[in-house]
Amino acid sequence: MNVSEFRRRGKEMVDYVADYLEGIEGCPIYPNVEPGYLQPLIPTEAPQEPEACEDIINDIEKIIMPGVTHWHSPYFFAYFPMASSYPSMLADMLCGAVGCIGFSWGSASEATLVALLAARTKVTRRLQAASPELSQAAIMEKLVAYFSDQAHSSVERAGLIGGVQMKAIPSDGKFAMRASALQEALEQDKAAGLIPFFVVATLGTTSCCSFDNLLEVGPICKKEDMWLHIDAAYAGSAFICPEFRHLLNGVEFADSFNFNPHKWLLVNFDCSAMWVKKRTDLTGAFKLDPIYLKHSHQDSGLITDYRHWQIPLGRRFRSLKLWFVFRMYGVKGLQAHIRKHVQLAQKFESLVRQDSRFEICAEVTLGLVCFRLKGSNQLNEALLQRINNAKKIHLVPCNLQDKFVLRFAICSRMVESAHVQFAWEHIRELGEDVLRAEKE
Amino acid sequence: MNVSEFRRRGKEMVDYVADYLEGIEGCPIYPNVEPGYLQPLIPTEAPQEPEACEDIINDIEKIIMPGVTHWHSPYFFAYFPMASSYPSMLADMLCGAVGCIGFSWGSASEATLVALLAARTKVTRRLQAASPELSQAAIMEKLVAYFSDQAHSSVERAGLIGGVQMKAIPSDGKFAMRASALQEALEQDKAAGLIPFFVVATLGTTSCCSFDNLLEVGPICKKEDMWLHIDAAYAGSAFICPEFRHLLNGVEFADSFNFNPHKWLLVNFDCSAMWVKKRTDLTGAFKLDPIYLKHSHQDSGLITDYRHWQIPLGRRFRSLKLWFVFRMYGVKGLQAHIRKHVQLAQKFESLVRQDSRFEICAEVTLGLVCFRLKGSNQLNEALLQRINNAKKIHLVPCNLQDKFVLRFAICSRMVESAHVQFAWEHIRELGEDVLRAEKE
Predict the structure, then answer these.
(1) Are A177 and A213 a contacting pair, CB within 8 Å?
(2) Are the C-beta atoms of residues B411 and A78 closer than 8 Å to each other?
(3) Domain B108-260+271-315 -> CATH class
């Protein structure tokens, strides 16, 4: 969908929304369908080719609306009000477009926490089943979780929140968590009477998009009965391309997996997708059923109560965004988006390699290039400062084994080869200034 | 803003969004303003009278956009991509309009958890400062938190997640938590060697909109050095009306306070507003600063890093919704909305009182009426079943001291006196059917 079609469709959507709310009094307040009605009405897979916008708009009426409880109907007197107003909707349209976010790579952090809490509950119950005299606190005191020293800070934060020890496993020369280092920490901790229970492996780390070795780490988790959570927040989107699937090898060992379609799959923030191998591990961890939340289907097995899967009870109707994007891009359109970003990263990498004053600091697998001027950290800090003060492009740094490194991430849906070319020439010029300044 | 103005403004916003994204390449990628630039440009209070939409749209350019980092610019190479696409934006427009949510009264539950975690950290550090030999687990094992037996289930859930004991305090005849009952539990637990550290008081409970007695509970929390969190998820919006302010008396004792503008203040889901008396209590609890999240202002005191205030790192630009709503309704417009809902609840209450076969089960303070047929729980369960099977209106029940009670909550922005009248006549008819069926 190009901008001119968006202008047209957006205005049609405004009218659709206005018509809907004008006519809501006439809507049956409560759906006349049974849970599960939707499944036969939608395909099991996203379309390969993009679909026409009309078809989707028509399906809203045919497929989606029959399943909706009309919370804004004047005949809705349940629960409490769910606020809605035209100004707020206007603001949300702008919010989606600006898409500037309070600090985040989105709620992969929430997924990690939920997985940790589920694992904490699971191991506690297992140990208490064996020795009922053990208190939860006595067990928690001994619990220990592991993550690569390259993992996102939200992983360590999950440990702080969950009240359990977390240990960083030193990554190897390619910034990956390997069996040997994990095994070593494990043996030490078991010898010290601790209880290893949780491992977070990252596919596509934030610093340099490195990949922990699932085929090595997975079997250890299985053998030691540790929960394996995979954080693929950024890289996960790339796995829709067959050529990147091999990076997923070992996923079969995972108890839970998360990636953020709102990063790289063209779905506006926020949208984080989590899978769990055994849902009862998750729902069992903190399930409560007050009468005002009970409903006739909760034991029917026909529906999934996602409120038991997450920290907040609330969620927006976010699947709608995925549904629109899958259909209007098709798998092929989404694959093309991923591949274009990877190619632009490779272009930037080759530009850097052509300049002997610069070095590439980590393997370029997807859309991130880690590079620096050969020389001191101070030199590279000065370069980054000049880049961000000039305000023509925006970069952030990372630390790779005590080296201060610049991250060049392909981000925008609109980024083209020319922008990457411009960025490189700009960086090289500022690099020359920095080197000159150093000599003086 | 009426529906016809929304049609016009919505289409203008579509064009604004399209123009913005078409022209984004020309935007300075990075704002040329300093933190704090915004404060002098906006009033310290919401306007009393509604403002014109033009003024707000103009202020977007004048006030908001200069402070925006353009994440979708093709010159943005920082962090990772933040996905954005036209289809996704279309879907979000519909999502906002439908406003049907995965199960929730929104993330008041998150606020409660964050407060509990902060309190847990605070008490742990205090005790470890006094006796450094104490382990976190040894302390956590003894921690106990309190909430009214009328509190929302998310409160107890926060305890499960935070790994601490929670105790329900029996509420009084008006379903309020009082000093005597809290004091009693407190003495028992202290005698048993437990460490009371956290109390959740609710203003406007989910079941019957009762109010815990802050003026009694507050001083106890102060005396015992317990964190007091106030959950005003629903009722909080009403405090913009002076006539309801007295319900807040005692708020001065609170360490943290939360309400959900997305419930009753015309701001689309999700939008939950939390205050904390001492921000370092919150940020100190789980603050981590990896290099890729560092920025030049983080120690300047000029900005507030909300990523330290919440579980997910991510947040949408939700203040925009509040800003639009405050300006386009004005305080008076918002007050009128609250007052209209309260009046409609009073109308329904008086209709129920006129029928001697029914009874009112709790004081009607705001927009919720708890009522039932005089008689058995089975009778009222049958009534509710008929109501929800007829699907003309939608209600949910609650339990009030072992009585099965029907909740009639004024919800829709569009609900008028006629809808309430219709609902009552419908309920009364079905009530007659149920009574007749019982006699047969």
Answers:
(1) yes
(2) yes
(3) alpha beta
Q: Is A99 helix (H, G, I), strand (E, B) or coil?
A: coil
pTM confidence score:
0.88
Instruction: Using CB atoms, pick whichever of B17, B157, B313 lies closest to residue A103.
Output: B313
| B105 pLDDT higher than 60 | no
Of the ranges A268-272, A346-350, B98-102, which is most confident? A346-350
- Give the burial string for A307-342 (b: 16+ CB within 10 Å, else e): bbbbbbbbbbbbebbbbbbbbbbbbebbbebbebbb
Where exactly are the structural domains of chain A? Answer: 108-260+271-315
Q: State the best of A411, A420, A427 to mutate against chain B, taking most chain B CBs within 10 Å.
A: A411
- In this complex, do B80 and A411 lie within 8 Å of one another by their Cβ atoms? yes
* Token pair in block for residue B347: 């109308």
pLDDT digits (tens, 9 = 90+) for A203-225: 999 999 999 999 999 999 999 99
If you average pLDDT over each of A30-34, A187-191, A315-319, B38-42, which comes out highest? A187-191
Residues 6+ apart with CB under 8 A from A410: A341, A342, A344, A345, A348, A367, A368, A420, B77, B81
User: Alpha-carbon distance B168 to A318, whole Å?
Assistant: 35
Q: CB–CB of A414 and B25 under 8 A?
A: yes
Range from B95-109, B115-129, B290-304, B345-359 that averages highest in pLDDT: B345-359
Q: Residue A102: its pLDDT value, please?
A: 53
- Alpha carbon of B353: minimum distance to chain A alpha carbons (Å): 18
Q: What is the DSSP string of B225-245?
A: T-EEEEE-TTGGGGGGSGGGG
- Collect all residues with Cβ–Cβ distance below 8 Å to B356 and sequence separation of at least 6: B374
Distance CA B414, CA B411 (A): 9
Q: How far A54 CA lies from chain B's nearest CA (Å)?
A: 12
Give the pLDDT confidence score for residue B406 in this predicted structure.
Answer: 96
Distance CA B205, CA B398 (A): 11
What was the pLDDT predicted at A414?
Answer: 85
Closest-CA residue of chain A to B111: A312
Burial of A300 (0-12, 13-18, 19+ CB in 10 A): exposed
Cis peptide before A270 (omega within 30 of 0): yes
Beta-sheet pairing, A358-360 with A256-259 = unpaired
Contacts of A98 in chain B (CB under 8 A): 20, 68, 71, 317
Complex ipTM, two decimals?
Answer: 0.84
Please give the residue of chain A at the shortest CA–CA distance from B6: A86
Contact status, residue A273 vs residue A310, Cβ threshold 8 Å: no
Question: What whole-number distance in Å separates Cα of residue A286 and Cα of residue A277?
Answer: 17
What rounded mean pLDDT belongs to chain A?
89
**How many CB pairs below 8 Å do chains A and B form together?**
566
Question: Model confidence at B321, in pLDDT bands (50, 70, 90)?
Answer: confident
Task: Give the side-chain half-sphere CA count within 13 A for B100.
Answer: 18
By Cβ distance, the residue of A3, A234, A315 closest to B102 is A315
Give the rounded percent of residues in chain A with a pLDDT score beyond 90. 58
Asked if B87 lies within 8 A of A327 by C-beta distance, the reply is yes
A297 pLDDT band (50/70/90 cuts)?
Answer: low
Lowest mean per-residue pLDDT among A35-49, A240-254, A365-379: A35-49
Instruction: Name the residue of chain A whose CA is nearest to B304's CA.
Output: A102
Candidates B2, B57, B77: best to mutate against A (most CBs of A within 10 A) is B77
pLDDT at B296 > cutoff 80? no
Helices A3-22 and B3-22 sit at what angle, rounded to 10 degrees? 160
